[in-house]
Amino acid sequence: MGENGATKHYQQVAFPPSEHSLELGHQQGASKCFDDDGRLKRTGTVWTASAHIITAVIGSGVLSLAWAIAQLGWVAGPAVMILFSFVIYYTSALLSDCYRCGDPITGKRNYTYMDAVHANMGGLKVKICGFIQYLNLFGVAIGYTIAASISMLAIQRSNCFHKNGDDSPCRMSSNPYMIIFGLTEIVFSQIPDFDQISWLSIVAAVMSFTYSSIGLSLGIMQVVANGGIKGSLTGISIGVVSQTDKIWRSLQAFGDIAFAYTYSIILIEIQDTLKAPPPSEAKVMKKATLLSVVVTTIFYMLCGCMGYAAFGDLAPGNLLTGFGFYNPYWLLDIANAAIVIHLVGAYQVYCQPLFAFIEKWALKNWPNSKLITKEVYVPLSSTRSVRLSLFRLTWRTTFVVGTTVISMLLPFFNDVVGFLGALGFWPLTVYFPVEMYVIQKNVPKWSTRWVCLQMLSLACLIISVAAAVGSIAGVLGDLKTYKPFKSD
Questions:
Q1: How far apart are CA 250 and CA 253, in angstroms?
Q2: Could you tell me if 425 and 467 are in contact, meaning their C-beta atoms sit under 8 angstroms apart?
Q3: Which positions carry the signal peptide feature in this UniProt record (predicted)?
Q4: Do the domain assignments include residue 3?
Q5: In-domain check, residue 346
Q6: Residue 39 belongs to some domain of the structure
Q7: Lowest CB count within 10 Å: 187, 300, 346, 481, which one?
């Protein structure tokens, strides 16, 4: 986070380019310093974009997939997962075509998801999109705080079980761990901008593969120990749960799977880090999306199916913290530590677009405020320094504190994950990408392609509503017995 790097990213995301910089960019578009929009040259590749996507996608959602498949069974579970992967890839490809308006090589860039909606749709839909997008990002921050604290708690509990036996109550609270995670995010949230967290995304992506692989390996070991595969074609049996709970759980499972795949809300921001054409950013982004979706689907199928095969109807809501596994305890500790490290990075990948939006809005409304514009350079060494903004420090810290407090009040991992997946899936992953593509490509109304796109959108809307209802029912059920700030 040297001074030059900080300045580079500050120009790229936090503030729009001036007319002078735009003119300069067109004059020096082919230079080594500037892109065609006057901003400092982007350096992203298909690999860095894939790292960002994998960091965002292979997150805490993978840990609930065994539970989700247990609700749906061996037929519907994998089928729904594959269906979601196709939908995510297809709609992401549509959205990547909306990064530039008009010509995919020379068209005007849209720097954020909201910019793309504004350029293609405008009006009230921009405000609706912004509200849903940033509410979803806020919710993801809460979900990641819960997941990270559960993993830190699991490390302590696994050591307690190892020391005192598997039947030990090991009562403890996740609240201190949420506070620790929140303090860590306050520090990392001071990284000025998205372009400067590539290293964090790469580390987080490695961590995601680490704990997913451990979960997969433990699932295989458990299947071998059981002497066969557990589970049924239709999922958890009526009798283990009531018929009503079976319905709610099945609907919630759709939300869990949707959450595990969703990343469209930050796709445009990721695409804006790619090198200038040729080839076009859209082509590079589609390659990165295909690579990432294939990799994540394989991992999801292996982890989810192996978890269900190992535990059947008793598959825990969180594969590595629900204590379906107790040993080897040190391997569980490594897996949960990897989850925490990954979520530190994933939190920033998701929140940076929200941070940048608020800071851009504040600068536009109060351009002469010293609180907004004043920066201080804090030297780290003779050659490096960190650029701190008082407003950035204040507002981002307030945001992290807010998400931490809410997480302490509602620490329901599966229900929160399902609701977040349902909230963001249809509007942000399907509806807006489909509508923007129809407008940008002038797809004729009532043509075969238009009808197919609208049918896809309607089907996904039904799935989102059903998943949201199931998750809300789960939260209401948990609240009947939950006491905040008490040990588990």
A1: 5
A2: yes
A3: none
A4: no
A5: yes
A6: no
A7: 481
